[in-house]
Amino acid sequence: MAWELILGLVIFAFASSITPGPNNIMLLTSGVNYGFARTIPHIFGVSLGLFFMTSCLGLGLGQLLKLYPFLLTYLKVFAFIYLIYLSWRIAFSKTISSGPNSTGKPMSFIEACLFQWINPKAVIMAITALSLYVDPQNPLFSLLLVGIIFTLVNLPSISVWVVFGVSLRNFLSDPKRLRIFNFSMGGLLLLSIIPIIFT
């Protein structure tokens, strides 16, 4: 892959990773409610889940979805239901967890990995990266390179949202402010369902 394409991929990965979306809304909320350390599995689940999904799509799963479009419909329905559940879960989070024995449970590594398959923004990111940066002359090597570069850029980019959430913990230690924040984040996540409905 030419250096120009690699630079383009890095810029694309950064722009698509750092901007708001379902992953970053949930990571910000997790940073506020659970702190950085307890959100680490969620962070790695997002990045490695995106890597795995991109690899699967590049190795032929994307063609399977084209051959059997009803699978995509089922995926959209499940995504719609699950995002409503996550929005409710975020909106009604009650307290900031400050220790390992506190109530509440952040998203696990496996949950974050699996979530990428129903995250509209992540799916679009993966398909766009594959269509723009995978070389048809050397598909396996360029697919691996795309996955590695995307993961290396994505990991610190999404971590910024967790750090921002952690920085808000003192301000949001007031239960009323925290309630407003969690309701707002749940509402924003609910709005992210719109791309599922209209695509």
How does this structure look, described?
There is one protein chain. The protein is mainly alpha-helical and 199 residues long. The protein has one domain (21-93, 106-197). It contains 8 helices and no strands. Helix 1 runs parallel beside helix 6, helix 2 runs antiparallel to helix 3 and helix 2 runs antiparallel to helix 6 (139-167). The radius of gyration is 18 Å and the shape is globular. The two termini are 32 Å apart. 37% of the residues are buried. The mean pLDDT is 87.
Set out the fold topology.
Blueprint: H1 3-18, H2 22-67, H3 69-91, H4 109-115, H5 120-133, H6 139-167, H7 175-191, H8 194-197
Classification by helices and strands: mainly alpha
**Could you tell me the strand content as a percent range?**
under 5%
- Tell me the domain tally: 1
Tell me the series of helices and strands, N- to C-terminal: HHHHHHHH
> Could you name the ranges where pLDDT drops below 50 across 5 or more consecutive residues?
none
Question: How confident overall, as mean pLDDT?
Answer: 87
The CA-CA distance between the termini, in Å, is 32 Å
**Largest sheet: number of strands, sense, barrel closure:** none
The helix count comes to 8
